[in-house]
Each structure stands twice: as structure tokens, then as C-alpha cells.
Amino acid sequence: MVKFFLSYQHEIFKLATEHLWLVGISMLFAIVIGVPLGVLLSRRPGWKALVLGTNNIIQTIPGLALFGLLLPLPWLGARADRLAILALTLYALLPIVRNTYAGISGVDVSVREAAAAMGLTPLQLLWHVELPLASNVILAGIRTATVITVGLATIAAAIGAGGLGEFIFRGLAMVDNRVILAGAVPAAVMALTADLLLGLLQRILTRGPR
Amino acid sequence: MSGLAETAIEFARVQYRVGDNVLLPDLSLSVRRGEILMLLGASGSGKTTSLKLVNSLLTATKGEVRVDGRSTAAWDVVRLRRHIGYAIQDVGLFPHYRVWDNVALVPKLERWEQGRIMQRVQEVLNMVGLPPNEFSRRYPAQLSGGQKQRVGLARALAADPPILLMDEPFGALDPITRSELQREFKQLQVRLGKTVVFVTHDVSEALLLGNRIALMDAGVLRGLYTPQEFARSTDGYAKPYIDTLRSMQQVFDL
Questions:
Q1: Which of A78, A81, A140, B162 could form a disulfide with A161 if both were Cys (CB 3.0 to 4.6 A apart)?
Q2: Chain B residues lying within 8 Å of A107, measured CB to CB
Q3: Closest Cα in chain B, distance from residue A82 (Å)
Q4: CATH 3.40.50.300 fits B1-77+164-174+193-254, yes or no
Q5: pTM here?
């Protein structure tokens, strides 16, 4: 088994890098879109049903189906990796948006009142109060989303976007477990590492009594 | 800007309504500069509502609230609130900020020069009885209820506002701590000369702290008294409070 891994190490490395790239870019987009969206939701709770509802629907679509559904899109559907990144971003959005919204709404009412009475502008409130106090919950959402995305990115191979899923699908076609594992094991290791690192980040940021 | 006008805060025929619920039908009241005016009343009497109209946390549906001669509608909201210190029962300290940073925040937002901030925060922590060396690096979770209130007061005083709004700040404290803080607050106010509007449902606190007592009931101002006038009053609104206080004192005759 180990010999197998070693003999394929170049390809494993190449696919793992592709995988990391897909996950990294998607997570970046998901955070850059998702956190502000969560903040916006806390300012306009009326939109909650629409935004979270849409997010929920996206999540219920099975991964493979979502990849397939997005294929006809212009520009995005043209290149497999763009498509994969779009789909992965959409999936990662829900935990991030929902946690950001929950974290910010969860800020103590008295703290908000005191902050308002001190003349904090909405932006100052966000910076000094809401984001710091919600950071733990937001980070938990990012952590969840990251682990999901690492797993989901294996499906990207089905539409030719590369990544460790290549091994999995190839192994399934060849009926060769070693090939499957060559994809599944690095992916699992990636997911666990991401979870560990983000967990560590959470603990670092939570230092100082609340 | 904050002139020497005798009236610091004025309610001019103020109405506050939420939907069909009229919390304040028609309030007219003047707060004199440098006085402690107690807003005394039961829950739902409109006293907290009235307080929040002063710093624009709520907006009157009719009439005008004037601070330092200018309608609150005409003030820039941020400037108005920096002009007024606010202390509430739950305090609302930022849990992720140390005592020092909680108190220093408004001066920081006002872009005071660093040295001035340091001096002021130390001064104000000493004023409220919290030696900076011991307390400035603590987090709110490491403070007792009384200590939290002191920090809340320090925070309210930090930018040296001429007006303080207090909403039952000592209500959740044990009687001994409450008494201690009441006495210290009274001494502090006499020294600093701040104009204070203080909401309470505790008649003994009203008598102890107030220069004048505004008795509120169902959103209506029923009477304005000095503590002596209140204690001797026979009108239907003040008398129940005094009777209750007297009956509590009968315990000493047992």
C-alpha cells in the first residue's frame, strides 16, 4: 500500500495541489461574500427568509447534481474549474452566512444599548462590538464550511475540474481500491488538518475572559 | 454650546406612541442644570421611555425634547450622545474589552490625544473608587456587580459630558453595595456638578439622591417635589410611596 502511494507520489501531489486550490479559492469567495451577507442580514432581518431559504435549497441539491445543473452557464460553464469553484462557493455559503448572522444577532442587548448610547456609529459598532463578539461563531462556520468543501471538492473531478476526486473516480472505474484510497486518504487528511488548524485559530482568538 | 442656561433638558408637550400604545401622552418637564432629577414611578410608568428620549434612543412622536436649548431632532445624533453619559442596570460593558479599554473608548472615538486619555481614565477610575493599578487590566467577567456598575459610571463620565442619564443603575445590587454606591454617587455629583436624570422605582433612593422628584404614573407626570415636599405630601400619588416607606420602618418598633 505504502509502495503504491510512493510510486504515485508525483500525481498525488499534483492532484492534492489542485484540490487545495479549488478549496482555497472557493473558501475565499465564500468568506468574502458570506460574512458581509451575514452582517447585512442582521441589519435587515426581513431578508432572512429569502436569503437563508435560498441557501438551504442550494444545500439540499446533491453535489453532483449541482455541478451538472451549472454546466449550461455562459463563461462559468465553459471551464470546469470555474464551474467547480462556483458550486463549492455556493455550498460553503450557508454555514458562513448563517453563523455570521447568528453570531451578530447574539450580541447582548445591553451591550448594544450601551454602545448606541455612547454614540457609536453603525460601522464602529460592527468593528468594536459585533465582529469581535461574533468572531468565535463566525470562525466555527468557516471551519464547518471548509471541511465540507474539502469533501465536496472530490466531486469536482466528475466534471473534469481535477483534484483528488480524480483518483476516486478512476479507482471506481478500475475497481481498484488502492487508487480510490490514493484520492480518499489525502482528502481526509486535508479535511482533518484544516479542522485542526481552524480549531487552533478559534482557541487563540478566544483567549481573554468573556 | 453648552451655555449657562438654567434649563439643561426640556420636555415640551412630548408624546411617545408605539402603534396604538401611547406610552407618554403629553409630557412637559424641565430639568435644571446641575440638579439630580429623579424620575420615580412603577414599571410601565414611562420613566425609562422619557429617559431614552433625551439621548435619542427613542424619538418623540409629537412635541419636542430639547437638550441645551436645542431640539434633539436638530442635534447630530452622535454629538448628542457623546454629550450625554448613560448608565443602565445591566451596565452593558464590552465583555471582550478590559476595564481600561471600556472606559477609554469614547475619548478614543473623540480622538483625544493619547496622554490626555491616559490621564482621564486614571482620574475617572479613581473617582469611582477603582484604583487603576488594580482594576484597569481586568475583564468585566472578573468584576463583582458593584465593581461593574462603578466601571459603567466611569465610562459614562470618561468624556466629561455635562449630562448623565441613569436608568436604575443600582437596582440589581445587594442593599449594602447599593447604599455605598448611592452615597458615593451623591458626593461625586455634588463635586462635579453634572446634570443628572435618574430613573428609579425605589422611593428611598429618590429621597436620598434627588434634588427634585418627578413622580410618574401611566406615562403622566403626577407631581414635582423636593424630597421634603414628597415626604410630607398627602396627594393620592405620593402618599402610597410614603406609607410603604413608613410601614417598612415599623420593623424597628417590633
A1: A81
A2: none
A3: 40
A4: yes
A5: 0.87
